[in-house]
């Protein structure tokens, strides 16, 4: 717009082009150009629905995840996969076979889908004329095949959409397709400024200029390499060198591979981790042999070490090459080798990297440095006098891309990385050719001479090592007045200080059109954003209440489909939504209390992590005045004095100082002297004492723990629960029935609304004053409440009559709502004629009845009860086939290969009485044929379920070690215990019991910990429950007690079968 009334010109864009999602899906490559204005203020708009861009040709091969779901794919891998020492050749040959198989057998998903839809339509037309069993069976077969094709289509678009937060269950093909098109359009580079300042849109020229830009970026910049003093790094200790030098095992390789995200973008070979994970039984041997060969001195094949570079925009509208971030797409096998090394570095590096480096190092938090920066700025602002202070903020431009390979090698030598491992690392870095994936087409190849690849698992550790050698590390952009995104320069944190956080959450949610997402999807999305963005700032700042209220309001409006100035009806109040799921809520958190949990973590770390750099800064800044907790050791603490036993009883105070130390109440075998404690303590206090692990050398030095957490380590979750538990409703097992269901999230959210009696029926609408009548619009009944819609309405009743057995119908149609729900949701009987779990079918049918009612009212779509039942049965069969898939049994072994002939089996379990909190442990030891060796039970008083499980294992291990057994397979039905005991760094856990068990398992003999189903652990469960009723100290059974004989024989028969 040209302003002719005043001097100068005023420019404002008046001419725009708008399009909806349907139009963009129809013309995904459309572009809008603004042409020069000549005789008017307006600029003509040119819309090109088919721009003259080069059609991508020569795109690299990409493995499709859907192939692994095909029934014949396993046979293809078994017959065509061959490994003869050269992995690149093997993959190339297998790729040729896969392409032929895809063309001849798998085919194009879209074509198969159209053919099946056409066949289904023809069958249904024929059935409209005359029904027959043959046509009905044929319809079922075609429906099943179509469902399989739709699952393949969903997986295809899910793989392309790069969207990980959605779960399987809903057919999200349209969403994934739209997401993929948007991502491709955003990543497509149409025009840029060249180095001479000219604007260029020729794709061939741009691709060549991009290669030149990266050749310059990764080109050597000559700089002197000074001699580095040998003592600049602490040398690796002998045990760490031995750990890095030890041979790579098959278990180590498998663990590294299965820790990879299955559907991340693949490298130049086209295979992602999902292929190797799903076909591990067929290709795992070759993969392990190849990886071990690399560590034995073999070189990387150039085809597997080739990296595809993807240019990711660092701003919304980049206009030159410097505004892109080069990300390397490495082959899975290359990343596998690097991840094996990275996993070892992860264990070793925390002992040698200085505390200033807070990122990428296990056990450290990058927010610690924010606290240090706050303290430095506060110190500078509060100091008086003439002395001036200066803070300098530094940034490293293209830090990863400009790291010298020579400097990396010098860093590896300085810290003492073994020579063979250095050779593998430098060979992987320096032998890699690169290609730019320019608009999905590879460019010409070039060779870098410096830099490390963003996307390689080892790159963060190499970068840390180089920055450690230089003496400083700054690894992200710093905005004015902020450090790591957190404001520094402020007097008091106010709402205006953190207004940008509110806008960030609002813009993130506004990017998703709430009207196009179901309630279940809005809830899932809100949960992923609601705590993630503000949670980062809560780790180091006290967030004002106004900020928390504004954020909660934004999320509330989004959940119910509203927006600023356009609120929607909230079916359930925010206070109810913030209740735990077991109390009728959705598990959202009040931000104010969530923030307080983080602040309590700072306070806890202030007294428990005295060696942390930020704590030392705080102490020094406060002149050493932080000493509000004095910790007594096991040698100085008195049993009734200090803080060892907080009974709060008056008579305890009179005993302080009269009785001996804690160690005097411990027997030589390491257990409490119950007889002596009985003299002084009542039963309820004694229960608390015996549940505390007695002092033991395996426990390490005494330290501060967080008692409200089962692991004794501070956790935000346990702190939040402690702050809020008094405001929560009583727990109800009926809610567990809803949330344990593994079907679609939309069905679970629907049942949550039903149980809360918040479905927007006409009676509810009338109660809220938004409807004049509460009558049913379908059958004219005078009251349309939840029970009427889901059970009593004519169409609903007809549908239920088709599936509810006749003998059950009298009760089914007369129970009140809550009884009706509880009875049917907890009924797991199989329908004899359909083979479907009743609770699964009930959930889906209730949801479809509600959906059909809404389709009838708002879209005038009439569905029959027969169609509703048929669709529900199909859904139930599909979801039940997913739900009943067997759980993966996780096995962790201390030895590499075992011959189990001379091994014995220890089954352990813990039991906790819900009403009184009493706990006991039990276990049984069997030989390899399942015969009884011994059993035990042990009453522990009051403790958590996790501690009861650990006590059970500890009792069993100590008993077997005393009897001379050193080859034991431990079995437990608690997967959390298996995970904790299988992680090596748990030796440094805050939990004394956990530390003691770990030290025993790693010290003597060979032990294996294995997760088993509950059906295989019935004997140990019965023995633990005996301990609850008998309430005795550790008791050994040489023969099975009568009350466990039946369970013992059942488990023995189960294991034999």
UniProtKB/TrEMBL annotation:
Pfam families: RVT_1, RVT_3, zf-RVT. PANTHER family: REVERSE TRANSCRIPTASE DOMAIN-CONTAINING PROTEIN, REVERSE TRANSCRIPTASE ZINC-BINDING DOMAIN-CONTAINING PROTEIN-RELATED-RELATED. Keywords: Nucleotidyltransferase, RNA-directed DNA polymerase, Transferase. It comes from the Eukaryota. SUPFAM superfamilies: DNA/RNA polymerases, DNase I-like, Ribonuclease H-like. This is Reverse transcriptase. Residues 293-538 form the Reverse transcriptase domain. GO terms for molecular function: nucleic acid binding; RNA-directed DNA polymerase activity; RNA-DNA hybrid ribonuclease activity.
């Amino acid at each position: 717009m040209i302003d002719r009334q005043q001097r100068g010109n005023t420019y404002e864009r008046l001419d725009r082009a708008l399009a909806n999602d349907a139009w963009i899906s129809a013309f995904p490559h459309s572009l809008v150009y603004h042409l020069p204005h000549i005789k008017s203020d307006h600029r003509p708009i040119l819309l090109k629905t088919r721009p003259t861009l080069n059609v991508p040709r020569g795109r690299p091969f990409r493995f499709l995840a859907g192939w692994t779901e095909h029934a014949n794919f396993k046979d293809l891998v078994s017959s065509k996969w061959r490994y003869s020492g050269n992995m690149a050749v093997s993959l190339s040959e297998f790729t040729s076979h896969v392409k032929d198989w895809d063309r001849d057998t798998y085919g194009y998903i879209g074509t198969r889908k159209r053919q099946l839809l056409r066949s289904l339509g023809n069958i249904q037309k024929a059935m409209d004329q005359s029904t027959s069993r043959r046509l009905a069976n044929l319809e079922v077969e075609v429906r099943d095949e179509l469902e399989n094709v739709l699952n393949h289509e969903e997986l295809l678009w899910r793989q392309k959409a790069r969207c990980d937060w959605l779960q399987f269950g809903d057919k999200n093909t349209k969403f994934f397709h739209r997401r993929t098109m948007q991502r491709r359009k955003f990543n497509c580079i149409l025009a840029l400024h060249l180095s001479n300042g000219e604007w260029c849109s020729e794709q061939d020229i741009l691709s060549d200029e991009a290669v030149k830009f990266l050749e310059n970026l990764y080109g050597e910049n000559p700089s002197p390499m000074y001699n580095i003093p040998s003592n600049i790094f602490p040398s690796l200790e002998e045990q760490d060198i031995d750990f890095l030098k030890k041979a790579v095992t098959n278990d180590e390789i498998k663990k590294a591979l299965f820790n990879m995200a299955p559907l991340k973008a693949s490298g130049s070979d086209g295979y992602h981790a999902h292929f190797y994970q799903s076909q591990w039984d067929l290709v795992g041997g070759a993969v392990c042999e190849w990886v071990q060969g690399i560590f034995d001195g073999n070189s990387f094949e150039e085809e597997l070490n080739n990296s595809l570079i993807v240019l990711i925009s660092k701003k919304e509208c980049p206009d030159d090459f410097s505004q892109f971030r080069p990300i390397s797409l490495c082959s899975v096998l290359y990343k596998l080798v690097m991840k094996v090394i990275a996993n070892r570095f992860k264990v070793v590096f925390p002992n040698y990297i200085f505390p200033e480096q807070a990122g990428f190092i296990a056990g450290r938090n990058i927010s610690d440095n924010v606290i240090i920066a706050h303290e430095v700025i506060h110190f500078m602002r509060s100091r008086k006098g003439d002395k001036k202070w200066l803070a300098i903020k530094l940034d490293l431009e293209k830090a990863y891309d400009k790291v010298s390979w020579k400097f990396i090698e010098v860093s590896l030598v300085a810290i003492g990385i073994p020579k063979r491992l250095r050779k593998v690392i430098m060979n992987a870095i320096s032998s890699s050719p690169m290609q730019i994936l320019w608009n999905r087409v590879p460019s010409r190849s070039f060779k870098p001479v410096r830099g490390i690849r963003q996307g390689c698992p080892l790159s963060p550790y190499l970068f840390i090592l180089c920055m450690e050698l230089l003496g400083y590390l700054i690894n992200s952009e710093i905005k004015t007045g902020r450090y790591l995104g957190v404001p520094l320069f402020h007097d008091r944190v106010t709402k205006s200080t953190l207004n940008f956080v509110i806008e960030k959450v609002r813009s993130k949610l506004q990017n998703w059109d709430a009207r196009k997402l179901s309630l279940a999807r809005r809830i899932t999305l809100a949960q992923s954003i609601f705590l993630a963005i503000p949670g980062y700032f809560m780790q180091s700042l006290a967030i004002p209440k106004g900020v928390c209220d504004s954020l909660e309001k934004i999320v509330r409006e989004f959940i119910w489909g509203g927006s600023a100035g356009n609120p929607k009806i909230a079916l359930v109040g925010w206070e109810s939504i913030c209740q735990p799921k077991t109390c009728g809520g959705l598990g959202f958190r009040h931000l104010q209390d969530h923030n307080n949990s983080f602040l309590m973590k700072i306070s806890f770390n202030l007294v428990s992590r005295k060696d942390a750099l930020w704590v030392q800064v705080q102490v020094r800044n406060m002149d050493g005045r932080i000493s509000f907790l004095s910790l007594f050791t096991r040698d100085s603490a008195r049993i009734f004095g200090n803080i060892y036993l907080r009974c709060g009883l008056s008579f305890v105070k009179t005993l302080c100082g009269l009785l001996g130390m804690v160690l005097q109440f411990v027997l030589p075998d390491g257990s409490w002297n119950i007889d002596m404690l009985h003299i002084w303590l009542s039963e309820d206090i004694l229960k608390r004492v015996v549940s505390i692990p007695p002092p033991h050398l395996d426990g390490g030095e005494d330290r501060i723990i967080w008692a409200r957490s089962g692991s004794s380590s501070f956790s935000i979750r346990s702190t939040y629960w402690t702050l809020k538990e008094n405001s929560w409703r009583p727990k109800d097992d009926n809610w567990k029935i809803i949330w344990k269901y593994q079907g679609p999230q939309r069905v679970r959210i629907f049942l949550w609304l039903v149980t809360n009696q918040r479905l927007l029926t006409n009676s509810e609408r009338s109660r809220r004053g938004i409807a004049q009548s509460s009558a049913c619009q379908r059958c004219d009944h005078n009251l349309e409440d939840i029970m009427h819609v889901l059970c009593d309405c004519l169409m609903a009743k007809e549908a239920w009559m088709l599936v509810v057995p006749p003998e059950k119908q009298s009760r089914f149609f007369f129970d009140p709502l809550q009884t009706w729900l509880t009875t049917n949701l907890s009924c797991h009987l199989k329908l004899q004629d359909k083979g479907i779990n009743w609770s699964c079918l009930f959930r889906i049918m209730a949801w479809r009845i509600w959906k059909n009612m809404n389709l009838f009212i708002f879209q005038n779509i009439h569905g029959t009860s027969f169609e509703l039942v048929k669709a529900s049965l199909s859904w139930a069969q599909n979801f039940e086939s997913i739900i009943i898939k067997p759980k993966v049994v996780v096995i962790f072994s201390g030895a590499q290969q075992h011959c189990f002939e001379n091994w014995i089996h220890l089954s352990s379990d813990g039991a906790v009485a819900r009403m009184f909190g009493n706990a006991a442990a039990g276990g049984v030891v069997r030989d390899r044929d399942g015969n009884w060796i011994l059993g035990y039970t042990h009453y522990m008083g009051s403790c958590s379920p996790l501690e009861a499980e650990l006590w059970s294992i500890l009792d069993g291990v100590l008993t077997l070690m005393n009897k001379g057994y050193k080859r034991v397979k431990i079995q437990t039905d608690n997967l959390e215990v298996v995970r904790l005991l299988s992680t090596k760094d748990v030796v440094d856990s805050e939990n004394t019991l956990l530390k003691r068990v770990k030290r025993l398992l790693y010290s003597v003999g060979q032990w294996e910990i294995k997760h088993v189903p509950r059906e295989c652990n019935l004997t140990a469960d019965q023995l633990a429950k005996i301990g609850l009723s008998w309430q005795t100290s550790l008791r050994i059974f040489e023969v099975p007690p009568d009350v466990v004989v039946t369970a013992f024989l059942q488990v023995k028969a189960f294991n034999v079968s």
